[in-house]
Design brief:
Strand content of chain B: over 45%
Strand content of chain A: over 45%
Number of helices of chain B: 0
Radius of gyration of chain B: 13 Å
Oligomer: heterodimer
Radius of gyration of chain A: 14 Å
Number of helices of chain A: 0
Strand order of the largest sheet of chain B: 1-9-8-3-4
Number of strands of chain B: 9
Largest interface: A-B, 29 and 25 residues
Structural class of chain B: mainly beta
Helix content of chain B: under 10%
Number of strands of chain A: 13
Shape of chain B: globular
Structural class of chain A: mainly beta
Chain lengths: 118, 110
């Protein structure tokens, strides 16, 4: 399994509280992603990073910020948590490699963080 | 990246081949077709990808039509553990923004 760890795995927090989720990788992959997944929905991209201090918004970035000060860590912050941010959050990493005459950017996912905002 | 269209759900009998279609009619020449699956409550898992040629690995086969406007993921001998949501993604190399659609919920019937 790819070396990717999310912490915490479960968290309950109150509305209005700041929350930070951490994604840590040991693979030295360039790209890192944060997704959220809600019942009945697929994965929706929140933010992604293509290098240290290089990040960009995804489909559902409002209310979230990210930081990547070193290759191995990608932090997702909810500045002021709301009940609509109750969700399961997945981190992913990827790297572009070339083999058998074609490119591959296989993504590896963490186990998820279940966040409940009450 | 080109959009994809997949059926919402499919059933397949255990031991039979599961064939999951994906339509990507606006795919461009440099876009790859990727397949991932997500087993209940776990993070998605990469299955296979291809550009033009058919591909096979230990998990599945990927058949891409000659015009590249559609593809089919084949699980040759489906087991109950293959019950999952399967995502077809079209992605341009160099554009690492990885977005998922709603996928196909595949249920393997004993």
């Amino acid at each position: 399994d790819a070396g990717i760890t999310q912490s915490p795995r479960h968290k309950v927090t109150e509305t209005g509280t700041p929350v930070t989720l951490r994604c840590h990788q040991t693979e030295n992959h360039r790209y890192m992603y944060w997704y959220r997944q809600d019942p009945g929905h697929g994965l929706r991209l929140i933010h992604y990073s293509y290098g240290v201090k290089d990040t960009d918004k995804g489909e559902v970035s409002d209310g979230y910020s990210v930081s990547r000060s070193k290759t191995e860590d990608f932090l997702l912050t909810l500045e002021s948590a709301t009940s609509s941010q109750t969700s399961v959050y997945f981190c992913a990493i990827s790297e572009s490699t070339r083999g058998r005459g074609r490119w591959n950017t296989e993504a590896f996912f963490g186990q998820g963080t279940r966040l409940t905002v009450v | 990246d080109a959009k994809t269209t997949q059926p919402t759900s499919m059933d397949c009998a255990e031991g039979r081949a599961a064939n999951l279609p994906c339509n990507h009619s606006t795919i461009s020449g440099n876009e790859y077709v990727y397949w991932y699956r997500q087993i209940h409550s776990q993070g998605p898992q990469y299955i296979i990808h291809g550009l033009k040629n058919n591909e096979t690995n230990e998990m599945a086969s990927l058949i891409i039509t000659e015009d590249r406007k559609s593809s089919t993921l084949i699980l040759p001998h489906a087991t109950l553990r293959d019950t999952a949501v399967y995502y077809c993604i079209v992605k341009l190399r160099g554009n690492e923004k990885l977005t998922f659609g709603t996928g196909t919920r595949l249920t393997i019937i004993p």
